[in-house]
Amino acid sequence: MSFLSAVYEDFTFAEVEAVIRAIFDEQYTLEIVPEVEIRTRLEERTGTDSWTDDEGNTHTSTYTYYEEVEYEWHILNVTLTTLPMSSVLASRMDVDQTQHYNSDKIKMPMFSNEAHVIAI
Questions:
Q1: I need a labelling partner for 27 at 20 to 30 A (CA). Which of 50, 81, 88, 106 fits?
Q2: Inter-residue contact 70 to 87 (CB < 8 Å)
């Protein structure tokens, strides 16, 4: 708010919306890199075996074995890079605006996303 007051003095949201979006885009860079690895695992399989004995009887047996199979493992690498707000704003102000901005910062306390408790 101090920046907007210093640069635009009196403004509406519609007048500064594009600037706010541009500041956001300059401050944050999102990089998304998908990656696929080929991995292996052992899978249990079942087989059957048939044979005929000397008397002509057919026998069947079931057995278990393990087979190594390949599969795809999908990874999404996400990196969010941020520049300090002061660096982004400094490049958008002239000397007079910077002085106004710095004096407004003293008058307007900056709050973070943390909850603030006021004792009464």
A1: 106
A2: no
List all residues 6 or more positions away from 90 whose beta carbon is below 8 Å from its beta carbon.
98
pLDDT tens digits for range 33-49: 999 999 999 999 999 99
Burial track 35-54 (b if 16+ CB lie within 10 A, e otherwise): eeeeeeeeeeeeeeeeeeee
CA geometry: angle 28, 33, 39, nearest 5 deg: 150
Query: How far is 38 from 96, CA to CA, in rounded Å?
Result: 59
Residue 90: closest CA among 8, 37, 23: 23
CA neighbours closer than 13 Å in the CB half-sphere of residue 57? 3
Q: Tens digits of per-residue pLDDT, 64-97? A: 999 999 999 999 999 999 998 888 888 888 888 8
Alpha-carbon distance of 23 to 1, in angstroms, equals: 13
Question: Among all chains, which residue has been given the structure tokens 């973070």?
Answer: 112
Residue 113, token pair as written in the block? 């996303």
